[in-house]
Amino acid sequence: MSAVLLDGRSIARQIREEVKSEVEDLRQTGIKPCLAVLLVGENPASEIYVASKQKACEKVGIESQMLRLPASASEREILRLVSELNSDEKVHGILVQLPLPDHIDELRVIDSIDPRKDVDGFTPENLGRLLLGKPYTVPCTPAGIVELLRHYGLQVEGSNVVIIGRSNIVGKPLAALLVQKAEGYNCTVTICHSKTRDVTWFTKSADIIVTAMGRAGFLKADMVRSGSIIIDVGINRITDVTAPKGYRIVGDADFDDLRDIASHITPVPGGVGPMTVAMLLRNTLKVARSSQWNR
Amino acid sequence: MSAVLLDGRSIARQIREEVKSEVEDLRQTGIKPCLAVLLVGENPASEIYVASKQKACEKVGIESQMLRLPASASEREILRLVSELNSDEKVHGILVQLPLPDHIDELRVIDSIDPRKDVDGFTPENLGRLLLGKPYTVPCTPAGIVELLRHYGLQVEGSNVVIIGRSNIVGKPLAALLVQKAEGYNCTVTICHSKTRDVTWFTKSADIIVTAMGRAGFLKADMVRSGSIIIDVGINRITDVTAPKGYRIVGDADFDDLRDIASHITPVPGGVGPMTVAMLLRNTLKVARSSQWNR
Fold first, then answer.
1. What does the alpha-carbon distance between residue B110 and residue B108 come to, in Å, rounded to a whole number?
2. What does pTM read for this prediction?
């Protein structure tokens, strides 16, 4: 048996086309969706992510504004800028690229974003709504994972899902989403992490395994049951002298080891990553639409 | 073997004494902690809960204000009252007794409470902060469960915890609390519920089982492993013609069946219930203290 590849790149393309056409409709009504992206400092990975988000916006007709502050910016400066964006009627969505420099209280900055403009779904208000089962914007990676599974007609409803990793941007919000009493969810969810005594005991019986802890090739064939679905959120750079750049990007799952035992698996890159960006576009469309009745 | 009873009543008494002495200290600084309790309609169970909360406040020197609206009250009336309480400087904590009548959007009402006065920890903002690992007020039942385990010196850190039930007031916030990367937590958490295919498979290997779904005597000895810790949040009324009132209160766990296999078990009543009320007092103390720097 060889696993079906969950081709996030191609599904994301479809979603971007849908968003593009809906953005056009919205523009007809006089609303020009606009996303403000705030980048503090010069983290190279953040630069890449931000550039790809901006490019994706551009392609679907969403205007993006890039705002930069130096790594030395004070919390007060950042908060002041967010506050300006909150009250700027032309700006529908606000994205603060994480991580922020160490001297900044990340939660305070995120919490200062108007939840109605929160395209990442990271504000406490929006995460709380998600946990309550009444989400406004859903964090992009969790939303992208669900969307990817659905596009392949895979059964999410009622599944045993094991999530490895408890980050605020993937593990915890994904658990909050999947456990909901709602059609298409209703999963039995376990969150495993660095302090879990026996991860294999959990993964061995899971229908769906989501790896999101940032350890290259952690999940191996002997940890999963035959026929399971593997969703790999990891993005790890490993040295590879044969690669043009001297490194390559791999996930948290050992793809070659797993492809003969899993029923479905996401490649890295090209699996969850493009879905995350597609969901950002969809969230931006959503907040732009909502702006009609927020005012 | 016979399980150790986790005597919530006696631990709650200790906590109330501590709160009482801290309330006295706070009064010395000129702050008279005050909790406003809003009850809409005449649900008999709610009447009992509210009365017991008010009595508990009184005993520790927390002033409580009872506000009643008829079951026919409009959402607008409720929101107006909450808004008045939000801006009333003499009121430190606000508790809206749930459930609200069917025609009221419960989330909208809860969301209208100033998170700084939210003694139940039910606002989206506070639930989001909990999920992010930076809680302000923690919902009372989850907080009470952790407190009870700690008072008995039981190992929470790193445990396999299975929670049965995904309510917004117990199951989901408890999972959000226990999974955190923080000393004394770090649990591997599974949430089971009505759509879980094989609850026993999960409970059989749990170190700690929390039943919170409202089904009398659901958890039985053949579903747990020897030596597990059983925390029973259920409060179910069952007919008993031999009882003075014609009924008695039982939990979700079959106490008599489990007491020879569990290492520790909470009685119902007298286990989690009194801890919940004690945590409400502690949260009220907390919001009253915070009012000093909120202004």
1. 6
2. 0.97
